[in-house]
Amino acid sequence: MSCFCSRGKGVGVDHIGTTKPNSRKGRGTASSFSFRELTSASRGFKEVNLIGEGGFGKVYKGQLSTGQLVAIKQLRLDGDGHQGNREFVTEVLMLSLLHHSNLVKLIGYCTHGDQRLLVYEYMPKGSLEHHLFDTNLERKPLSWKTRLNIAVGAARGLQYLHCSANPPVIYRDLKSANILLDDDLNPKLSDFGLAKLGPVGDNTHVSTRVMGTYGYCAPEYAMSGKLTLKSDIYSFGVVLLELITGRKAMDVARKPREQSLVAWSRPFLGDRRKLSQMVDPLLQGNYPIRCLHNAVAITAMCLQEKPNLRPSIGDIVVALEYLASESVSEVHRRGHAMRSPLQQPTPKTDTDTDTDTDRNQN
């Protein structure tokens, strides 16, 4: 029995949790599927179709009767089902209301007994997390240019939530596992079950129970439960750090002092001479040094301990877009002459010095 509307009707963001369907069509709509349809689409939720799993439940690849490939999330309800139901309703609400090219598209949902399922567009390249950390996959490492483009797309999605949504939306669960990639490695933010509407009026924060993933949570939120837009900025800084270093936000397999990525990176962030030592070795030195310095500077600002010192997402988007464009032109200029930071620098000639001076002046 569904508490939403019937198949093909709009999921009204004004009427979620009621039996009254929204008469409006178009952007704020999602389809209601029967459990039988989704069981058929996923071939009985077989393990062979399992493409993701976490605290929320499992995600299966499926194919609708129309032939469309989809991702079907089967939510895991807790003891009394309240938390799972809250995340289900929140996600339907958010993704029915919010539409952007860098947010994953909600196609539909299913409520059947104690089953809560969500149907999304299928993202064929999986998550950013898998591309950065899954060493068993036979694929080329993400290039520096691709990493910057992913950062730009994720930032644009977050900018939409913070600046275009009214009231603004605090994502609260920004991490590499929730950044999904399409065939062209364009990123989309996913999993909005923990999202919260941001403060309005004279309010400076939203007080809420601490949720999210350890290693990505802003320190002030983890300690006090006070949630702000700047909490997302800190999490975004951690993702930037993962893109630069190729290390996980938290990795218990490493030495104790290296398990927290933010704590491990602090000595490098403050010393430009050491920056090349923190870069993902899979890049093999194929990145513009000046671009790296600027990317690290943006990351360090996002990771400021005091929330008011962190930049706005709008400023971050502008900065990253500039870096992405500069990175392309820099790589084009250097071509195959780019050296690994592990190599000894070649002594500069007078001509080289003059060229560097001209570039700096330009």
From TrEMBL:
Stretches for region Disordered: 333-362
InterPro entries assigned: Kinase-like_dom_sf, Prot_kinase_dom, Protein_kinase_ATP_BS, Ser/Thr_kinase_AS
Annotated positions binding ATP: K73
Compartment(s): Cell membrane
Domain Protein kinase stretches: 45-323
CC annotations in GO: plasma membrane
E.C. number(s) listed in UniProt: 2.7.11.1
Main location: membrane
Enzyme's top EC category: transferase
SUPFAM superfamilies: Protein kinase-like (PK-like)
A Pfam family matched in the record: Pkinase
UniProt key word Repeat: no
Membrane topology: Lipid-anchor
Keyword tags: ATP-binding, Cell membrane, Kinase, Lipoprotein, Membrane, Nucleotide-binding, Palmitate, Serine/threonine-protein kinase, Transferase
GO molecular function terms noted in the UniProt entry: ATP binding; protein serine/threonine kinase activity
Catalysed reaction equations from the record: L-seryl-[protein] + ATP = O-phospho-L-seryl-[protein] + ADP + H(+); L-threonyl-[protein] + ATP = O-phospho-L-threonyl-[protein] + ADP + H(+)
Keyword Nucleotide-binding found: yes
Family: Belongs to the protein kinase superfamily. Ser/Thr protein kinase family.
Protein's recorded name: non-specific serine/threonine protein kinase
Species this chain originates from: Cajanus cajan
